[in-house]
Amino acid sequence: MELLRERLVECGWRDEMKALCRAYARKKGRNNVTVDDLIHVITPKGRASVPDSVKAELLQRIRSFLMSSSLR
Predict the structure, then answer these.
(1) For helices 2-10 and 52-70, angle between their N-to-C axes, nearest 10 degrees
(2) Which of 17, 54, 55, 61 is the S-S candidate for 7 at Cβ 3.0 to 4.6 Å?
(3) How is residue 36 annotated by DSSP?
(4) 7: Cβ–Cβ under 8 A, 6 or more apart, which residues?
């Protein structure tokens, strides 16, 4: 999880999501937005915008971990 967080910050994904949340809150009115609203609106965009390089690196790390664990 730490590696994922680090990579998402490095590639600007976190800042992009923060900007989307702020834009949505401005559009709807700050007092008219709940956390659930943000999650509902931002989650699909967030998942779709994770860079393929980050996904590939994490997948490779998980595979390596599973391979090393199965050899024990």
Answers:
(1) 160
(2) 54
(3) H
(4) 54, 57, 58
Q: Extract the tokens encoding 12.
A: 């600007």
- The C-alpha atoms of residue 67 and residue 18 are separated, in whole angstroms, by 36
> At 70, which helix (H) or strand (E)?
helix 52-70
Helix/strand/coil for 37: helix
The rounded distance, in Å, linking the Cα atoms of 41 and 24 is 9
Return the amino acid letter for 6: E
- Cα–Cα distance measured from residue 62 to residue 71, given in angstroms and rounded to the nearest whole number: 14
